[in-house]
């Protein structure tokens, strides 16, 4: 399996600064961070066969270096329950992405298992011009942009920093179990923060990362989408 | 301990000091500093001025090279174009530190920046560490080195103390020393960073972390030269001694262009705030905050927790201050039953109220030792970590409060229900007695809350 450094070197060799979702998730796997299962399918038939292996419901997402905003291009279909829905989704994704991005090179689609819903959080990394790599934790998904309820820590983080990063957000109570829901597994989120911290401390090539959303559960957490940006 | 710390120790303990640009001309820095250092007891002071044989009774020398012993520090008051050659001369003569006052370097643009870099490089590589340029040097009471105009002109006390300071604004440290001295605080060393051609805030912070005389660090910063090193150093120092830092330039610029959500949200102010939290730096945003907190950390022990008791002679201010304490995240627990019983014994039954807050009532005006008794009783309560006293302005009462503050081992902050201008002398009296006193009980509550926050940081760091 390709190591995180192999993945980065391959992208750099191709003159790319943005890793694909597939590469980004492979990289996370290499760091020991749980992600959703995803495989590339180049044709409709491959998509249907892969979906049968991964299991239903599943998600199809367009795979293309040229399409960064997949949802906006109609390149994401979720909650697909059987082979017929997968086949139809494949056709719909190809049609709308070709219409939105006529010049794009499209490799096919990725077939992903659909993580069960959890509390959506984000773990991110950016490079500060004065202090170097920093990590961010916050409410994820659409809440990042809307509420900007996030906290920052300078790398390297220790366990206390990771705990504080999670405790510092305004909605920290949401993670304690709210209105009858179970508290989320904060240890799993701390582990993700610490693994990303160790990785970026040792890998200056990485400029920015978003693990967003991460679904946090009462037992574990899964990175559902990820984006890794390399320094120019 | 790093080489830089050793070098700074030599510089701040300088015995042989050259003042390049010394003068007897009225109104010149060359004269003011020469007089200031003579008076402050600088051990061996060498005026350097090629046009003079003698200045203010001291033999003058034509150059640094002409000084007959190895210098610890050369203070350069000369114009910017002379600085590079003088630093080279310092290197050739093994001078340990050069203090460069001249401005007209990095702040003027690319050419000045190059010259400034060169000055820093020549000094650092040659073993003459450079403070400045565009700075006002340092104040080291132990060595009698002083180049702070305000401090010299005001006759600010020169005995050594335990406050260390560094500032990227020269004028600010000059006034800060004066302000804090009037609050009874004294200094180990205070240094003006200037443009940081060589030595920078992170180096001074590291030095103050290692310096045994320094117990509290005050600072003003705008930017940082090596942020990673500053963070590493601050992490080590912050758990050992409080660092009070006023960071200027914290206003966020507009939205940032970035390829990720994280990049877009990681504004400079958020990152500085994160750094403060991780290092325990006590971040403040005004002169008043710097002074208030420096006084508190200097005079008081750290609280063990965040449980506060309020004692006052006015019901109203006591209750209002209790609200402020809550809003600051402090807890006002019920007093222990033993404490309550003991208070009832000493306080008259009429016009007083025992609890948290405790109101010593108008009776305390006539019976001023009531405050001291109440303070000592409440300090014995194992459920209380710190005390805020709102005292009458009666002199004898303040004397009792000051004595009680010293007799207990918990932090006690005092506010007097009188403004400094309505009752001249009372705050000066309390400052002399080493009492942390503030003209508004809210300010007293704020400093205690910040101390509790810092104490919790130190405790958590010790447990991690």
Provide an overview of this structure.
The complex is a heterodimer of chains A (232) and B (464). By secondary structure, chain A is an alpha+beta fold. Chain A contains seven helices and ten strands. Chain A has two domains: 37-113, 2-Layer Sandwich (Dna Ligase, domain 1), CATH 3.30.1490; 117-230, ATP-grasp fold, B domain (D-amino Acid Aminotransferase, Chain A, domain 1), CATH 3.30.470. In chain A, a hairpin with a 3-residue loop joins strand 5 and strand 6 (132-139). Chain A is globular and about 50 Å long. Chain B has two domains: 3-296, Rossmann fold (3-Layer(aba) Sandwich); 302-463, Rossmann fold (3-Layer(aba) Sandwich), CATH 3.40.50. In chain B, the strands form four sheets. Chain B has a seven-stranded mixed sheet with strand order 9-8-11-10-12-13-14, with helices on both faces.
CATH architectural group of the largest domain in chain B:
3-Layer(aba) Sandwich
Look at the structure and give the mean pLDDT of chain A: 93
- Number of discrete helical segments of chain A: 7
Strand count, sense and barrel status of the largest sheet of chain B are: 7 strands, mixed
Roughly what percent helix of chain B?
40-55%
Query: Biggest interface and which pair forms it?
Result: A-B, 36 and 25 residues
- Distance between the first and last residues' Cα of chain A: 26 Å
CATH class of the largest domain in chain A: Alpha Beta
Q: What's the N-to-C terminus distance of chain B?
A: 24 Å
Determine the mean pLDDT of chain B. 93
Per CATH, the superfamily of the largest domain in chain B is Succinyl-CoA synthetase domains
Tell me the strand order in the biggest sheet of chain B: 9-8-11-10-12-13-14
Shape of chain B: globular
**Total separate domains of chain A:** 2
Rg of chain B, Cα atoms, Å: 25 Å
- Work out the helicity level of chain A: 25-40%
Instruction: State the low-pLDDT regions of chain B, or none.
Output: none
One letter per element, helices H and strands E, the order of chain A comes to: HHEHEEHEEEHEHHEEE
Number of strands of chain A: 10
Overall, the morphology of chain A is: globular
Rg result of chain A: 18 Å
């Amino acid at each position: 399996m390709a190591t995180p450094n192999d993945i980065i070197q391959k992208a750099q060799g191709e003159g790319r600064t943005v890793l694909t979702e597939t590469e980004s998730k492979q990289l996370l796997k290499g760091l020991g961070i749980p992600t959703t299962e995803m495989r590339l399918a180049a044709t409709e038939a491959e998509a249907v066969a892969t979906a049968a292996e991964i299991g239903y419901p599943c998600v199809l997402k367009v795979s293309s270096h040229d399409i960064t905003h997949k949802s906006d291009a109609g390149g994401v279909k979720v909650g697909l329950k059987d082979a017929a829905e997968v086949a139809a989704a494949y056709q719909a994704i190809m049609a709308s992405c070709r219409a939105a991005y006529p010049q794009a090179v499209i490799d096919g689609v990725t077939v992903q298992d659909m993580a069960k819903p959890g509390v959506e959080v984000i773990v991110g990394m950016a490079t500060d011009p004065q202090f170097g790599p920093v990590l961010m934790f916050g409410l994820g998904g659409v809440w990042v942009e809307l509420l900007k309820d996030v906290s920052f820590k300078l790398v390297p983080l220790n366990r206390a920093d990771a705990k504080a990063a999670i405790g510092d957000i305004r909605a920290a109570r949401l993670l304690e179990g709210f209105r009858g829901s179970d508290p989320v597994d904060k240890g799993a989120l701390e582990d993700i923060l610490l693994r990303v911290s160790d990785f970026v401390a040792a890998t200056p090539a990485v400029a920015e990362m978003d693990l967003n959303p991460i679904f946090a559960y009462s037992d574990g957490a899964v990175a559902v989408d990820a984006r890794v940006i390399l320094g120019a | 301990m790093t080489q830089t710390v050793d070098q700074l120790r030599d510089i701040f303990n300088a015995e042989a000091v050259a003042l390049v640009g010394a003068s007897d001309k009225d109104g010149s820095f060359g004269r003011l500093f020469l007089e200031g250092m003579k008076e402050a007891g600088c051990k061996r002071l060498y005026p350097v001025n090629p046009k003079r044989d003698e200045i203010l009774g001291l033999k003058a020398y034509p150059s640094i090279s002409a000084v007959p012993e190895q210098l610890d520090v050369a203070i350069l008051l000369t114009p910017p174009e002379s600085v590079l050659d003088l630093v080279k001369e310092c290197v050739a003569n093994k001078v340990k530190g050069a203090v460069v006052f001249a401005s007209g370097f990095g702040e003027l643009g690319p050419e000045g920046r190059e010259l400034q870099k060169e000055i820093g490089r020549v000094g650092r590589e040659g073993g003459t560490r450079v403070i400045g340029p565009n700075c006002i040097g340092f104040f080291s009471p132990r060595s009698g080195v002083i180049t702070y105009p305000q401090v010299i002109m005001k006759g600010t006390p020169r005995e050594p103390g335990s406050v260390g300071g560094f500032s990227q604004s020269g004028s600010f440290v000059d006034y800060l020393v004066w302000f804090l001295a009037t609050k009874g605080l004294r200094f180990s060393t205070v240094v003006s960073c200037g443009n940081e051609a060589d030595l920078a805030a992170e180096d001074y912070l590291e030095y103050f972390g290692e310096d045994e005389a320094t117990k509290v660090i005050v600072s003003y910063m705008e930017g940082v030269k090596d942020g990673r090193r500053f963070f590493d150093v601050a992490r080590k120092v912050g758990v050992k001694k409080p660092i009070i830092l006023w960071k200027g330039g914290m206003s966020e610029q507009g939205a940032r262009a970035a390829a990720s959500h994280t990049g877009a949200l990681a504004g400079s102010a958020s990152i500085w705030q994160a750094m403060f939290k991780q290092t325990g730096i006590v971040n403040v945003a005004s002169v008043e905050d710097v002074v208030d907190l420096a006084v508190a950390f200097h005079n008081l022990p750290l609280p063990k927790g965040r449980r506060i008791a309020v004692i006052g002679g006015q019901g109203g201010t006591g209750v209002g201050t209790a609200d402020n304490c809550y809003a600051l995240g402090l807890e006002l627990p019920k007093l222990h039953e033993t404490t309550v019983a003991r208070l009832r014994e000493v306080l008259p039954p009429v016009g007083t109220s025992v609890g948290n807050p405790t109101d010593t009532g108008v009776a305390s005006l006539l019976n001023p030792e009531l405050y001291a008794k109440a303070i000592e009783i409440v300090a014995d309560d194992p459920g209380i970590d710190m005390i805020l006293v709102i005292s009458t302005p009666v002199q004898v009462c303040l004397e009792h409060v000051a004595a009680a503050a010293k007799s207990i081992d918990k932090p006690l902050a005092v506010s007097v229900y009188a403004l400094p201008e309505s009752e001249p002398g009372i705050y000066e009296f309390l400052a002399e007695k080493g009492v942390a006193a503030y003209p508004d009980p809210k300010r007293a509550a704020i400093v205690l809350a910040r101390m509790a926050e810092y104490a919790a940081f130190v405790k958590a760091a010790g447990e991690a």
